[in-house]
Write a sequence for this structure.
């Protein structure tokens, strides 16, 4: 089963090729994905790397977490499962905006 790692505090110039190069000495990298801001097409400074096996992923965490890379201290750990988006946009309940229309009394 493939293990997915979170890689944080990356320099904004790191691309997916460089990310793959950084992690490939530890084992077979299945995917290396730098997260990009969709508005300005720049890196958000974090990425996900997926390894083919558990042992390679654990070794990469042990060897790279806390190390300095191009002046930044990397954060490398096992990625948490992605939370489901309920599509609510943070709103709940009454969406009337505080305005309530009342019926005239007869």
């Amino acid at each position: 089963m493939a293990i997915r790692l979170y890689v944080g505090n990356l320099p904004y110039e790191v691309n997916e090729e460089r990310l793959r190069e950084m992690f490939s000495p530890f084992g077979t990298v299945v995917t290396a994905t730098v997260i990009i801001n969709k508005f300005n097409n720049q890196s958000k400074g974090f990425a996900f790397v997926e390894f083919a096996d558990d042992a390679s992923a654990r070794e990469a965490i042990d060897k790279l977490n806390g190390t300095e890379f191009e002046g930044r201290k990397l954060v490398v750990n096992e990625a948490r499962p992605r939370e489901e988006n309920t599509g609510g946009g943070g709103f709940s309940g009454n969406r009337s905006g505080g305005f309530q229309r009342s019926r005239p009394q007869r």
The chain has one domain: 3-78. The CA atoms of residues 37 and 99 lie 36 Å apart. The radius of gyration is 21 Å. Residues 54-64 form the longest helix (11 residues).
